[in-house]
Amino acid sequence: MPNSRPQRILVIDDNPEIIRVLTHLLSDCAEISFATSGNRGLVLASQLNPDLILLDMELPDINGLALFYLFKADPMLTNIPVLFVTGGDSTELEVAVLEAGAVDYLTKPLRPQIVRARVCTQLALKKQTELLREMVNLDGLTGVFNRRYFDMTLEQEIARQRRTGGYLSVAMVDVDHFKNYNDSLGHQQGDACLRTIAQALRAAMRRPRETLTRYGGEEFGVIAPDVGLQAAAHFGNWMLDKINELALPHPSSNTAEIVTVSIGIAIGIPTAECNAHHFIAVADRALYAAKQAGRNRHIVMQV
């Protein structure tokens, strides 16, 4: 499956002893990170995209419930399950956190068996949810993510980079003379070719959050956060090399004796005026320019 990283838990609590206990209890279940304030927790949640947040009700800078509502208001964080950790134990408190949308809550003093049981249950549910989501978002032919996932992820990354002020690169990768390939070798061989190219491009994804999708037909879309102008050029060459190394024979190509690709890369810092449409349009223009320049190359354009 495209997503195979270890699960992550973010503990937001200002009590060092609670952090120590939770880390000891859960470090064999998932990677553990912690924050001792609400503001730091908000930053780490955005950076780490954890699978579960354990949130103290009382923090030095913000009430836990208020911080929870900030998570839910952020499109990048709204789907992260939150399990409250509280010193209180009342029906009213339990109802309040569950009605707010928390998945569960733990009371202090922490009981190790209860902590592990409830946390492991939530991690298992999160894993099942992610697997189902990936199945819906996978391309049936190539096994990489599909156009639906591309559109959704691009919107999310634009929102993230607007907040951080970071660069975003979007690449369109098109197989050169693919119609000729199908006409000369048949559609079954064409399907096998697309699967092989998808595997090679997936192997070229090296940085965190780089996303490969089948955009449609013989075209693939790549989303690469935090990739600046120079890095985008290197990335384009890297993808070209990965495809050329396959040395798939292409008897009816006007460009080379093997299967090649053309790549258009759009790069920019997303702003309120710079949306997903702008990135896709610029990447398409760069792809067209790469084809006009002779194919089997990449061209980078700034948004």
Q: Could you please describe the fold and organization of this structure?
A:
The mean pLDDT is 93. The chain contains ten helices and ten strands. It is an alpha/beta fold. It has helices at 16-26, 38-48, 64-73, 91-100, 112-136, 147-164, 178-185, 187-204, 229-246, 276-292, and strands at 8-12, 31-35, 52-56, 82-86, 104-107, 168-175, 211-216, 219-225, 261-268, 298-302. The strands form two sheets. A five-stranded parallel sheet has the order 2-1-3-4-5, sandwiched between helices. A five-stranded mixed sheet has the order 7-8-6-9-10, sandwiched between helices. It starts with 7 loop residues before the first strand and ends with a strand. Helix 7 crosses helix 8 and helix 8 (187-204) crosses helix 9.
Quickly list its features:
303 residues; alpha/beta; 10 strands; elongated
User: What is the average of the pLDDT values?
Assistant: 93
SS summary, helix count = 10
Helical content band: 40-55%
How is the largest sheet built, in terms of strand order?
Answer: 2-1-3-4-5
Morphology: elongated
Largest sheet: 5 strands, parallel
Structural class, please?
A: alpha/beta
